[in-house]
Amino acid sequence: MAVLLDGDALAARLRQEMAARVAASGIRPVMATVLVGTDPASESYVARKHQDCAEIGIEALNIRLPEQATPADVLAEVARLNADLDVDGFFVQFPLPPGHDEQAVAAAIDPAKDIDGLHPENLGRLITGRGGIPPCTPMAVLALLRGYGIALAGQHVVIIGRGLLVGRPLAMLLSAPGIDASVTLLHSKTPDLATFTRSADIVIAAAGHPALVTAEMIRVGATVVGVGITYGDDGAMVSDIAADVAGKAGAVTPPHGSVGPLTRAMLLQNVINIAQQQADHVSA
Ligand SMILES: Nc1nc(=O)c2c([nH]1)NC[C@@H]1CN(c3ccc(C(=O)N[C@@H](CCC(=O)O)C(=O)O)cc3)C=[N+]21
Question: pTM for the complete prediction?
Answer without folding.
Answer: 0.97
